[in-house]
Amino acid sequence: MIKKEDRIYFEKLFPFWEKLTHQEKNYFIINSRTMTFTKGVDISSSPECFGLTIIKNGKIRVFLTSKEGKELSLFFLETMDIGVLTAQCIYPKLQVSINLHTEEVTEVIVMNPEAFSLMRKRNSEVSDFNMDLIYTRFSEIIEQMETALFVPLSVRLIRYLLKQEKKELIITQEEIARHLGSAREVITRNLKLLQNAGCLQVSRGKIQILSEEKLKTMLD
User: Fold this and answer.
1) pTM of the model
2) Which strands make up the sheet holding 200-203, listed edge to edge?
3) Which CATH architecture has domain 151-218?
4) HTH crp-type domain: which residues (predicted)?
């Protein structure tokens, strides 16, 4: 059972919350708990089923891995996001293998997967919310796959850098390669071109963005 102060997350994030009966609300509360993952945890390899999850704080990277070991980030779950950490527990027919790693210390509220499945079947509002969640995440995955297939890496790299909303990025070129589904050597070559153009300064484990405007013009 979650603490009383954590119930506000249900009120804020579940559009169906006020339409539930008192008994249904208690069912959600009793069958939920808080968990904390340290940085670098491979959640997807855990034998435990986590089910519907609210991110209280932290960041989880959701990505695919090819047979050759290349990775492609699909989306991130961050503070106040909702996701399903081990989808096969709730959707047993789902055969896609998706990886989840914590990018930082992450605290979550997890609902028992069997309890959530039961609520989906009994309450149409919960079922509709579940379908909306699936649609949203599936749309994000399709968009990312289309980008990886049809958008040049040079453009994807610039978009990635701009999306960080920071002037100084503490990140390795290997990490960027994993996010974009590329090789470190290719990322290094593209970063050098951007550095020569005066857009950024690259050093070991750090990228300093010198001009966002120059980066944006290179997208045109």
Assistant:
1) 0.80
2) 168-169, 206-209, 200-203
3) Orthogonal Bundle (1.10)
4) 165-211
